[in-house]
Specification:
Blueprint lengths: L10 E5 L2 H16 L6 E4 L6 H9 L5 H6 L1 E4 L1 E3 L10 H13 L6 E2 L8 H14 L5 E5 L20 E3 L4 H11 L9 E3 L2 H6 L3 E5 L5 H9 L17 E6 L4 H4 L1
Helix pairs in contact: 1-2, 2-4
Bound molecules: 2-phosphoglycolic acid.
């Protein structure tokens, strides 16, 4: 008989709606990182975390000492965009959060989208994470197809930071709205790997809305499988899920 990895129950924080999720997530982030001398956080893009960034920027701009010492990295980035391209996730994170709270430039860990050799670039990020002593908190969204970062279904569960080529049709379609058409969405990306996220000291998954209810249920109650990349979180002993009632529809039923 073969035995799989040990499985853990993530801590689930139930909130009423996206607004409460944003406030609760902002509080969680400060509570987790503020006690640490040199915290290292990983940040996602997306509509789900937007209110959290707004709350952190506007209401919780008190822990100034935290923002000055926080090392903040991005979860994922498209490949092949030139510096200054509006579609860069690094630019989005800077605009909605890092510039607002004043994360020093030298503490921002970004993929170089236009790196000549993307494979070398993902290795650089993986090594940098190790050199800095590892990730304290990785904040994650959940894709409609179960992806974490740009780790699409089928991604190896133990992979380090990697190139995802191609992105899935669902991911291209859901990102098209931002950029005015599917043809404007780059077809490949760099992402922290599922193995990288497994080695983070803690993970925070944010999920909102009924459209995510089915995939959240599969991630939290189905088999741990590359078909549902987010299911990897159940092999990690320190995962918190903040989700609204709509997203938890099946789990609370
Ligand atoms: P969303 O993206 O927050 O915009 O829904 C999540 C994801 O696709 O990872």
């Amino acid at each position: 008989m073969t035995t799989g990895p040990a499985l853990y129950e993530p801590k689930i924080i139930i909130v009423d709606d996206l607004q409460s999720l944003s406030r609760r997530a902002a509080g969680f982030v400060v509570e987790t990182l503020d006690p640490l001398a040199k915290p290292f956080v990983i940040l996602p893009t997306g509509t789900t975390p937007l209110g959290m960034y707004k709350t952190l920027s506007e209401e919780q701009n008190g822990p100034r000492g935290l923002w000055n010492r926080l090392l903040a990295g991005q979860l994922d980035e498209y490949i092949g965009l030139e510096q200054g391209d509006d579609r860069l996730f690094s630019g989005w994170l800077s605009r909605v959060f890092m510039d607002k709270v004043g994360i020093p430039d030298q503490n921002r860990v970004f993929f170089r989208s236009n790196a000549a050799d993307p494979a070398a670039e993902v290795d650089r990020i993986e090594r940098l994470i190790d050199t800095k002593g590892g990730i304290d908190l990785a904040i994650l969204g959940l894709g409609l197809n179960g992806h974490l970062g740009f780790n699409e279904p089928g991604s190896p569960l133990d992979a380090p930071t990697r190139v995802q080529d191609p992105l899935s049709p669902e991911t291209i379609a859901s990102n098209a709205a931002y950029w005015g058409g599917e043809d404007k969405v780059p077809s490949k990306a760099m992402t922290l790997g599922l193995g990288t996220l497994s080695r983070a000291r803690s993970n925070l998954l944010l999920v909102s809305g009924e459209a995510k209810a089915g995939i959240l249920d599969r991630a939290l109650t189905g088999p741990v499988t590359p078909d549902v990349p987010a299911s990897i979180l159940r092999t990690h002993p320190n995962v918190t899920v903040i989700a609204d009632r709509a997203a938890l529809k099946y789990i609370l039923a």
